[in-house]
């Protein structure tokens, strides 16, 4: 073994690291999906990486005079954007206190006459007239935790059954999911804690080392067939010597696609890094095989528990 790699092994993967109990499972329905309480929405409203592409896409893609349905509307900001062009907006929000806040805010912004706020489970809601555009932002990196796929799949099927027509446009228009091998330090003043990490896209994570290039494992067009699960096996190549001890999940959402301009309005979600059960040492050029599987909307823990990586 090379001295430098041996030194790295002793520092980054101790011979007897502390044992960590199995990941605690949570009831995500109590926290996310259609259950985001009001005190989280301030951060969402202030997130310009999220707000700007949605604002542009809604301004450009909602037809004048359209009926827009927003599923999981929160404080109503997307419905507010849509009201500038739509004839009518139907906003669905499950939490009563958030729906009440949306009504107050929409009235204060002068669009209460155009936007109707309905308290309902978006998985079972159906409007009284066809939707020209559906807006649904129940998104989480890798499409875990939140119910984007489940809600849209149910709404599309019921819409086609009731009105004998497909939903013509959904905002966001697509999601692109990718995975990347990395080294993520988990030593905090001598305390070993391989917990999930989230870093804003485009901002390097603290001491994160990219060990290979990202690889796309799924591209989702929301108007077409939606996957209920992901089963991934990919061969990747290490670009530097060292350790791979985690996988980084990268999610790009083309919120609006503008063919005439040959571009899209994109939202890059925060990177999510999940620790591998066993780190692997590599040299530059080594092939590695990664595997994982999970259901759309499942917990972060269920995805992490499926992670596997081996050197070839």
Keywords:
seven-stranded antiparallel sheet; 34% strand; 312 residues; Rossmann fold; alpha+beta; disordered N terminus; Hnrnp arginine n-methyltransferase1; elongated; five-stranded parallel sheet
Number of helices: 7
The fraction of residues assigned to DSSP E strands is 25-35%
Query: What is the percent of helical residues?
Result: 10-25%
CATH class of the largest domain: Alpha Beta
Provide the residue-averaged pLDDT.
Answer: 90
- Any idea what the CATH superfamily of the largest domain is called? Vaccinia Virus protein VP39
Instruction: Describe the largest sheet.
Output: 7 strands, antiparallel
Task: Give structural notes.
There is one protein chain. The protein has 312 residues and is α+β, with helices and mostly antiparallel strands. It is 23% helix and 34% strand. The chain contains seven helices and 17 strands. The strands form four sheets. Strands 6, 9, 10, 11, 13, 14 and 15 form a seven-stranded antiparallel β-sheet that branches. Strands 3-2-1-4-5 form a five-stranded parallel β-sheet, with helices on both faces. Helix 5 links the parallel strand 2 and strand 3. The chain is elongated and about 60 Å long. The protein starts with a helix and ends with a strand.
Strand-helix topology:
Layout (H helix, E strand, L loop, with lengths): L2 H10 L28 H6 L1 H14 L5 E5 L5 H7 L4 E6 L2 H13 L6 E5 L13 E4 L11 H16 L6 E2 L2 E10 L3 E2 L2 E2 L4 E3 L9 E2 L4 E7 L7 E9 L4 E17 L4 E6 L2 E12 L4 E9 L4 H6 L2 E4 L1
Parallel strand pairs: 1-2, 1-4, 2-3, 4-5
Antiparallel strand pairs: 6-10, 6-11, 6-13, 7-8, 9-15, 12-16, 13-14, 13-15, 16-17
């Amino acid at each position: 073994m090379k001295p430098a790699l041996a030194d790295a092994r002793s520092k980054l993967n101790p011979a007897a690291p502390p044992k960590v109990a199995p990941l605690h499972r949570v009831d995500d329905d109590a926290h996310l999906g259609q259950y985001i309480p009001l005190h989280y929405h301030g951060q969402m409203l202030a997130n310009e990486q999220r707000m700007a592409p949605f604002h542009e896409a809604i301004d450009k893609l909602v037809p004048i005079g359209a009926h827009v349905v927003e599923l999981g509307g929160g404080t109503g900001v997307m419905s507010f954007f849509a009201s500038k062009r739509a004839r009518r907006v139907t906003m669905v929000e499950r939490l009563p206190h958030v729906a009440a806040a949306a009504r107050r805010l929409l009235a204060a912004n002068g669009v209460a006459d155009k936007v109707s706020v309905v308290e309902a489970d978006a998985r079972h809601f159906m409007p009284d007239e066809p939707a020209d555009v559906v807006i649904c932002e129940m998104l989480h990196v890798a499409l875990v935790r939140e119910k984007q796929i489940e809600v849209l799949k149910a709404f599309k099927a019921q819409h086609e059954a009731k009105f004998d027509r497909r939903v013509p446009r959904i905002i966001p228009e697509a999601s692109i999911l990718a995975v990347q091998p990395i080294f993520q330090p988990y030593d905090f003043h001598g305390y070993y804690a391989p917990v999930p990490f989230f870093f804003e896209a485009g901002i390097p994570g603290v001491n994160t080392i990219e060990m290979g290039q990202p690889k796309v494992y799924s591209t989702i067009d929301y108007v077409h067939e939606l996957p209920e699960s992901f089963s991934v096996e990919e061969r990747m190549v290490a670009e530097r010597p060292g350790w791979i001890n985690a996988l980084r999940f990268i999610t790009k959402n083309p919120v609006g696609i503008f063919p005439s301009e040959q571009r899209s309005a994109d939202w890059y979600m925060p990177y999510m890094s999940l620790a591998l059960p066993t780190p692997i040492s590599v040299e530059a050029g080594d092939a590695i095989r990664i595997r994982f599987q999970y259901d759309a909307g499942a917990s972060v823990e269920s995805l992490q528990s499926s992670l596997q990586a081996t050197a070839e």
